[in-house]
Automatic annotation (TrEMBL):
<keyword id="KW-0539">Nucleus</keyword>
<dbReference type="GO" id="GO:0003677">
    <property type="term" value="F:DNA binding"/>
</dbReference>
<protein>
    <submittedName>
        <fullName>MYB-related transcription factor</fullName>
    </submittedName>
</protein>
<dbReference type="InterPro" id="IPR017930">
    <property type="entry name" value="Myb_dom"/>
</dbReference>
<dbReference type="InterPro" id="IPR009057">
    <property type="entry name" value="Homeodomain-like_sf"/>
</dbReference>
<dbReference type="Pfam" id="PF00249">
    <property type="entry name" value="Myb_DNA-binding"/>
</dbReference>
<keyword id="KW-0238">DNA-binding</keyword>
<feature type="domain" description="Myb-like">
    <location>
        <begin position="9"/>
        <end position="62"/>
    </location>
</feature>
<feature type="domain" description="Myb-like">
    <location>
        <begin position="63"/>
        <end position="113"/>
    </location>
</feature>
<feature type="compositionally biased region" description="Basic and acidic residues">
    <location>
        <begin position="1"/>
        <end position="10"/>
    </location>
</feature>
<dbReference type="InterPro" id="IPR001005">
    <property type="entry name" value="SANT/Myb"/>
</dbReference>
<keyword id="KW-0804">Transcription</keyword>
<feature type="domain" description="HTH myb-type">
    <location>
        <begin position="9"/>
        <end position="66"/>
    </location>
</feature>
<feature type="domain" description="HTH myb-type">
    <location>
        <begin position="67"/>
        <end position="117"/>
    </location>
</feature>
<keyword id="KW-0677">Repeat</keyword>
<feature type="region of interest" description="Disordered">
    <location>
        <begin position="1"/>
        <end position="23"/>
    </location>
</feature>
<keyword id="KW-0805">Transcription regulation</keyword>
Length: 226
DNA sequence: AACTGGTTCAACCGCGTCTGA
DNA sequence: ATCAGACGCGGTTGAACCAGT
């Protein structure tokens, strides 16, 4: 004995939305809002749809400023870092990406990003972020309960912050016998982390740090401090 | 051109949580 | 404190599309 369905399936239309239905829903919501009840909205708007279906269509497709597809590398890194910290909390992750919906982020993760993660350096980079940069995510993933509390904006690390150490992939043959580092190899190999840092506004500081280490010919695989 | 297998993504489902009576 | 209805979420499905043969 399951729970009662939210509406009579035999009396509502299902499947893809027509342009006419989209137009009807958009016009109604823009004029009246959701009026506090999605369940009663279809009847008021003159739609033969389930309220939940209307809500989903509006949130994922019709509401203003929605972006579809074309995820940037910066968005990739934010998704990765948050996924490693809080898991499949798609709505929380989407809230950090303006114009993205939880459904979009979830689909993107399941169809593309997961595969990408399995095949390149991003895994190591995300793991590094997880262990070394977690203090700079200004929330506690364990105490962040299923709720409407908005996630605070990401913050810049303090001046004396300890940056992530280079990933394990920065081992020979990229490191020379005397401890110096092949610049090109380093940058190529470290690029995933570099991009992650860029995403969190560390770009300039970290760039200077790389330049410094390269100029000084110091081993770059040691930890970074300001 | 026709078929097949893989991919994408909009939409659905059902459960947990919230809220108001 | 309890309950029922509504909401919001993550997991899953399946039709449409694409690429390869």
């Amino acid at each position: 004995m399951g729970r009662a369905p939210c509406c009579d399936k035999s009396k509502v239309k299902r499947g893809p939305w027509s342009p006419q239905e989209d137009s009807t829903l958009r016009d109604y919501v823009e004029k009246h809002g959701t009026a506090g009840s999605w369940i009663s909205l279809p009847q008021k708007a003159g739609l033969k749809r389930c309220g939940k279906s209307c809500r989903l269509r509006w949130l994922n497709y019709l509401r203003p400023n929605i972006k579809h597809g074309g995820f940037t590398h910066q968005e990739d890194t934010i998704i990765l870092a948050l996924y490693h910290n809080i898991g499949s909390r798609w709505s929380v992750i989407a809230s950090q990406l303006p114009g993205r919906t939880d459904n979009d982020v979830k689909n993107y993760w399941n169809t593309k990003l997961k595969k990408k993660l399995a095949t390149n350096h991003l895994a190591a980079a995300a793991a590094t972020i997880n262990s070394n940069m977690l203090p700079y995510f200004p929330f506690d993933a364990n105490s962040y309960q299923h709720s409407q509390i908005p996630l605070p904006a990401l913050v810049e690390a303090p001046e004396n912050a300890l940056l992530p150490s280079a990933p394990a992939t920065l081992s020979p043959p990229f490191i020379n016998a005397d401890g110096s580092c092949e610049e090109d190899a380093f940058l190529l190999d470290f690029m995933p982390n570099y991009d992650l840092l860029d995403a969190f506004d560390f770009h300039d500081k970290f760039n200077h740090q790389i330049d410094y280490h390269l100029q000084q010919e110091q081993p770059i695989y040691q930890s970074f401090t300001y």
